[in-house]
Design a protein that fits this description.
The structure holds two protein chains of two kinds.
Chain A (H helix, E strand, L loop, with lengths): L9 H5 L3 H16 L6 H24 L7 H16 L5 H23 L4 H21 L9 E2 L5 E2 L3 E2 L3 H23 L2 H11 L1 H6 L4 H27 L1 E2 L6 H14 L5 H16 L7 H15 L3 H9 L1 H6 L1
Antiparallel strand pairs in A: 1-4, 2-3
Helix pairs in contact in A: 3-7, 3-10, 3-11, 3-12, 4-5, 4-10, 5-6, 5-10, 8-10, 11-12, 11-14, 12-14
Chain B lengths: L1 H21 L3 E7 L10 H15 L2 E2 L2 E9 L4 H14 L2 E6 L3 H14 L2 E4 L16 E3 L4 H14 L4 E7 L2 H16 L3 E8 L7 H9 L4 E5 L2 H13 L8 E4 L4 H7 L1 H4 L3 E4 L7 H13 L7 H20 L5 H9 L12 E2 L5 E2 L2 E6 L12 E7 L1 H4 L14
Parallel strand pairs in B: 1-3, 1-4, 4-5, 5-6, 7-8, 7-9, 9-10
Antiparallel strand pairs in B: 2-3, 11-14, 12-13, 14-15
Helix pairs in contact in B: 2-12, 3-4, 5-6, 12-13
Classes of the chains: A mainly alpha, B alpha/beta.
Chain lengths: 325, 401
């Protein structure tokens, strides 16, 4: 957890340190060449989940709001994107946009109801509404029930670039991913983000300072839903299907797991957590070792040994990072 | 002399390269659920069945080793399709087998269609797989929802159960089961006197069961799956449904489900299956070999289906000489007579459906059962052409008409 004394002034934080910039540029360069060694579909999937976890972290890590229903936005957007590609035959960018808009609207509806409560009640309200959305998806004909929306083509980006080639798609997904993470970073370090963190630390004080706390929270909720929707839309485009798995409460649980393992309240944390969980799911799949057991054990280890999550613990332990803070 | 040396060198290098490329064995990928709710009915048993089929075939295909690898798709379509893609791209997997969970099966079918890899579906039962989404490299081997609904509906009506009442789980799967069964019941001269829908994962069926009892129908049909079927069965037993003279029909039940709830609860239940281990000498012989490797567990229809699918695939691949092309292997298979302990005089249709006999069975009472796994008595053999969806009704675009 970031403590109040960790806060820097807005002017300082909006300008990244030179060191940080170098690291970020180096990471982007690695991202560009990584498909030479790692299976690109897996990398793209990883980026989708990393973005999903980052969106979740925007709400939990910076807003202090634990939502148990983020799968509704992720899976809902995936359905809308898939439907837009398959039935409306939109171009991929418009289809994803449709998915994001759907997630924003859903986020606004659920957020308006949920932010009236705090703590466990907030979590339960989001869970309940997300479950309602799950049963809605289970029954409406356009989602095609258990089968899911399947077998549509990825189409041409802007009507020009053919996305059926994995390499082309990889760079498109990578671009969206980097831009979105940057946008989240920018939101967190904006005056808005500062106030959001202030509300997380002490809501009463924020109210007494004259901030309209409910609006800030709703804003964070809707933005988080929007980014989750973007991740869901990308995933639907990547795999060419949208199914009930993405709206199920297991998915809401998984994103919490990713974020907590990686470490909340940092930009890198959810990305590392998502990478770990997705890689475990993929590599353990062929080993015969039960995946759920491995994930559960990892989570227990995290809670017992490094409560700040992997990235949080590293930042805490490494003196260099601490002195900079 | 130099030219000769060069030629020799070149040939040695080429030979080495070719040998290097060929050293990769053909792999058969069993893609199943190793950690979730389908583990018992498919899971480990499907792996064992695939390995038995490869061993019985002699372990080599077109002169190369055959290796069986297993993947746990965790019932997640994204995990399943990533795995299948990686297997095909990087590990020389020539056939993907089993596929529980219809969303995963459909997702993987898109991958195998693109790469022209054989897809042998045994646990996946969505009739969509051989309907609008059909693929030329797929064989849906064991069952589908249409066959179970239609088989039970038709056969039971012909046996004298004329009036039906449905307990239907309220989403696409349940509604399709109800519609298919209704069609079969009405075609056989029966009537549906009512139906009630319930949400998925219902814990209390009492009000639905009272309605079903009150309807006075001959049969109460459970158009739902796994957990819901179990709960409904247990509560129907408490309500004394069968004791009062009504029959219960399970639309989707596996041998392991019956094993799970026990004969006290499942007794007298009627259902359709593609296979039962204790039908004849052949099925017993194979099933006992299977049970030896599975700590005494008898095979479900999908386990037997996996064995049959893999062994017939290997025969067809050997005959066609083209293991790499799923479509060519399937075309070869279409010309073959599929005949083994699992299915006699079966054939593979153009839409990917394997047509074989199904069996209407009734679960024995605890008194009738002579020992562990002695659960079914076969009431009636349903000829394949009657059991499965007629090809004229298939929405498969591969059928030219």
């Amino acid at each position: 957890m970031i403590k109040a004394e960790d806060f820097e002034t807005v002017a300082e934080t909006t300008r990244p340190h030179r060191m940080q910039r170098i690291v970020v540029v180096a990471l982007i360069a690695v991202l560009m060449v990584l498909p030479l060694w790692v299976y690109p579909v897996l990398l793209m999937k990883l980026m989708c989940f990393a973005l999903f976890a980052s969106a979740f972290n925007l709400l939990l890590g910076y807003g202090g709001l634990l939502s148990f229903g983020h799968a509704a936005f992720f899976g809902g957007a995936a359905y809308v994107t898939a439907h837009a590609l398959k039935v409306w035959e939109l171009t991929p960018e418009l289809a994803i946009l449709a998915g994001v808009v759907a997630a924003l609207v859903l986020g606004l509806a659920i957020g308006l109801l949920a932010i009236r409560r705090q703590g466990i009640y907030f979590a339960m309200v989001t869970l309940a509404l997300a479950q309602m959305f799950y049963f809605f998806c289970l029954q409406v004909p356009f989602t095609e029930g258990e089968d899911g929306i399947q077998g549509f083509s990825r189409g041409h980006l802007f009507g020009l670039i053919d996305l059926s080639d994995s390499t082309v798609l990889y760079y498109a997904v990578a671009a969206v991913f980097v831009a979105s993470v940057f946008a989240i970073w920018r939101i967190v370090h904006s005056p808005y983000g500062m106030i959001l963190q202030a509300i997380r630390e002490n809501e009463q004080r924020a109210i007494s300072l004259g901030y309209s706390v409910q609006r800030y929270k709703l804003g964070a909720f809707v933005m988080s839903a929007g980014f989750a929707g973007l991740a869901g839309g990308l995933k639907a485009l990547l795999f060419q299907f949208a199914t009930l798995t993405d709206v199920n409460w297991h998915m809401s649980g998984e994103v919490i797991l990713m974020t907590l393992i990686g470490g909340i309240g940092s930009i890198a944390g959810p990305i590392v957590g998502a990478a770990l969980v997705v890689s475990l799911q993929n590599y353990l799949a062929t080993t015969g070792f039960p995946v759920t057991t491995a994930l559960g054990a990892t989570f227990i280890l995290c809670v017992l040994l490094f409560r700040r999550g992997i990235v949080g613990e590293l930042r805490h332990r490494l003196p260099a990072a601490r002195s900079k803070k | 002399m130099t030219t000769v040396t060069r030629a020799l060198l070149a040939s040695v290098v080429c030979g080495a390269l070719a040998a290097g490329a060929q050293a990769e064995p053909y792999r058969i990928g069993v893609l199943t659920d190793m950690s979730g709710m389908n583990y018992d009915l498919s899971g480990k048993g499907s792996e064992v069945a695939a390995r038995m089929a490869v061993e019985d075939f002699g372990g080599t295909l077109l002169g190369e080793q055959i290796e069986v690898i297993v993947g746990d798709h965790q019932n997640k379509p994204d995990v399943g399709s990533t795995l299948a893609r990686r297997w095909i791209d990087e590990q020389n997997v020539v056939a993907v087998v089993d596929l529980p969970t219809s969303s995963v099966a459909l997702a993987v079918q898109e991958i195998t269609r693109q790469s022209d890899t054989a897809l042998l579906i045994s646990t996946g039962g969505s009739s969509e797989l051989t309907g609008a989404s059909c693929s030329p490299s797929t064989a849906q081997w064991t069952w589908d929802t249409y066959a179970l609904a239609n088989g039970t509906g038709r056969a039971m009506t012909l046996e004298g159960d004329k009036t039906w009442f449905f307990l239907t789980v309220d989403y696409t799967f349940g509604n399709a089961l109800e519609a298919d069964t209704t069609a079969a019941v009405e075609a056989a001269g029966g009537t549906v006197v009512g139906s009630v829908t319930h949400p998925r994962e219902t814990s209390d069926f009492s009000s639905y069961l009272l309605q079903a009892q009150g309807s006075g129908a001959d049969v109460i049909a459970l158009a739902n799956a796994s957990g819901d079927t179990m709960t409904a069965l247990k509560q129907a037993e408490e309500f004394g449904v069968t004791a009062l003279g009504q029959d219960i029909a399970g639309m989707l039940l596996f041998l392991t489900d019956v094993h799970g709830v026990g004969l006290d609860i499942a007794k007298n239940l009627t259902l359709t299956t593609a296979f039962y281990w204790d039908m004849n000498e052949e099925t017993r012989a194979w099933s006992e070999r299977f049970a030896e490797r599975m700590d005494g567990k008898m095979p479900t229809m999908v386990h037997a289906g996996v064995y049959s699918a893999v062994s017939n695939y290997l025969k067809a691949a050997e005959k066609s000489g083209q293991a790499k092309s799923g479509t060519q292997v399937m075309d070869t298979m279409r010309d073959m007579d599929i005949d083994d302990f699992f299915n006699h005089n079966a054939y593979l249709r153009k839409d990917g459906r394997v047509v074989h006999d199904m069996y209407l069975v009734q679960v024995k009472t605890p008194e009738e059962s002579k020992g562990p796994w002695d659960y079914y008595k076969v009431l009636r053999t349903i000829p394949g052409d009657e059991a499965f969806r007629p090809i004229e009704q298939s929405a498969c675009p591969l059928l030219d008409r």
